[in-house]
# Entry
Amino acid sequence: MNKLFIILFICATGLLTGCITPWTISRGGALPNQGSYGVQMNIPAEWYKRRVHNVTLMTRNGLSLESIIIYRTKWTDSLSNGHPIPKSILLHELPELLLGEYTADGDAFNFTMIENLITDVDNLPCARAQYRYTSPNSLNVRGIIYCIPFYSYVTVVCFEAEESHYYAKSVNDFHEMAGSMMIRKKQYRPLPGVKVSKE
# Structure
């Protein structure tokens, strides 16, 4: 699922069901309804936020200029190729697969993966990738994505911003938010090839 799909989904859902929540300004503190993502985190203050179903959107200057999107995708959800996420997927392959949906949908041109690594979030291995692409409206976008595997779903925490100006203005807020993430350890799913230390 990518940013454009999420935005279109939110618009369609609101038109059909009236379930769109209004944008509100964040005062910081804990992410509301964070239990549905399996993580706890503190969101940045002075960002506009909105939640629709299991998707949380945040922006300061408009979604095309910068955004933080938090959502989950079930292991059984179909990708653009009609298949679910492979059961034997390696942790570092999760961002590659989910970001591959950008190019599959034709929403990202000149897509480049800058970095893809396994990092610790709350002492558990999670995938983090940095990337850049050109959007359909010709903006150069840079992003960071975290993929956190749980037994029933993958939680995705994604930051994107227009690269020449808005990225530098917003990325520190995202780093602080990501640094505050705490994982519900009982729901965490270790993936093949990654050793999880028992505490």
Strands lie at 24-27, 39-40, 45-52, 55-59, 66-74, 109-121, 124-134, 140-149, 153-162, 182-183. The chain has a mean pLDDT of 87. Helices lie at 3-17, 93-104, 166-179. DSSP finds three helices and ten strands in the chain.
